[in-house]
Amino acid sequence: MIPSSTVTPGVELHDLTIGYTRRRALRRGTVTEVASGLSAVARRGELTALVGPNGAGKSTLLRTLCGLQPALRGRVLIDGEDVATVKPADLATRISVVLTERIDPGLFTVRELVALGRTPHLPASARLSPEDLAAVDQALEAVGATRLASRQFSELSDGQRQRSLTARALAQDPSLLVLDEPTSFLDVPSRVELVDVLGRLAREQNLAVVMSTHELELALRVADRMWLLGTDRTLTCDTPAALAESGRIGAAFDRGRMRFDSRTMVFDLKPEDSSV
């Protein structure tokens, strides 16, 4: 983990309320709050894992964080600037997003797909410059996908696809990299490899990386910082060890006979009640 004296805030949430508005014909929209009073920091040079039970609002928080939907109240700051005041074209150069939806880029090669990450930096109808091409090569190398560059995206395994999409996001040269469940379709070795790559990228490229995940045990072992969005719709920001030792992880995830052991940082089954 990078010492706190050497890292700077990349993203800050200040008393944030997230939710959405349902539009109705001839009527005012109905506002639904998902969570409120959220305050947290994701620092440059660190991997921050967003965890929480299903339905807690993780995807809504990420969409608000990226400016894909407006905050109901409060502020999201990126490098000290309110996301709501940043022009969309500028925001596209500062925030990269990798979502859970599977994409079909047709017959694009991996290099062509990654090159799309340079689009926000280009003027209308402009070709890629030597500097842009170098950025594509650097992004491929950073995620270990250089050998995949000439292959068609449709031919890749799920793990290779996720690396390629991460390279496309890196090619944007962002301040913030946001990933929504990036390990969802991966086998266990690929999950570990991808999360390790994300942590390395955060450190080496001084990125703020925020990743939502259901891989709680992996996140606890690898993430520098964790945002825990609980069933009570409150957000707690701390190190994984501190959250585990405080009992907050168990309070959020213990179900039935499943319990979280803060000593081993894994889930196990509660012993059967021998008195029954």
UniProtKB/TrEMBL annotation:
Q: Does the keyword Phosphoprotein apply?
A: no
- Provide the GO MF annotations for this entry: ATP binding
Give the InterPro entries listed for this entry: AAA+_ATPase (IPR003593), ABC_transporter-like_ATP-bd (IPR003439), P-loop_NTPase (IPR027417)
Coiled-coil region(s) at which residues? none
Q: Does the keyword Metal-binding apply?
A: no
Ranges of residues in domain ABC transporter: 11-256
Q: Which UniProt keywords apply?
A: ATP-binding, Nucleotide-binding, Translocase, Transport
Protein origin, superkingdom: Bacteria
Pfam families listed in its UniProt record? ABC_tran (PF00005)
Q: What is the protein named? A: Iron complex transport system ATP-binding protein
Question: What's the source species for this entry?
Answer: Rhodococcus rhodochrous J3
For this protein's source organism, the top of the classification is:
Bacteria, Bacillati, Actinomycetota, Actinomycetes, Mycobacteriales
